[in-house]
Amino acid sequence: MALGNSTKTVFRSNTSGVYGTAPTEPKTLRAYKERSLHKGYLRISIVNKIYSVHHLVALAFCLKGEGKECVNHIDENSTNNKASNLEFCTIQENNIYAIRLGL
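Structure tokens predicted for 5566_t:CDS:1 (103 residues):
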């Protein structure tokens, strides 16, 4: 998937890792370093913008229903970013999950 106005292409494995190509080396994949920055959620910086890894995975591999803008970790583990563990949800549904977890 292309992000922003970048000529880089970014790939996300459905099990682990975020990889990208640069215009100067389009056939070479390099791994992006994932960092835990906000409440245990993994994030990466691509083209000077920070992305949540779970959101990138969901955009690439999960069905997004109408009005569902948030991404929920089904097992409530914020570092488990496998596509099978993610689902899109509404803001209201996300707030219900947060209250249940005491966040």
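Residues 3 and 46 are 8 Å apart (CA to CA).
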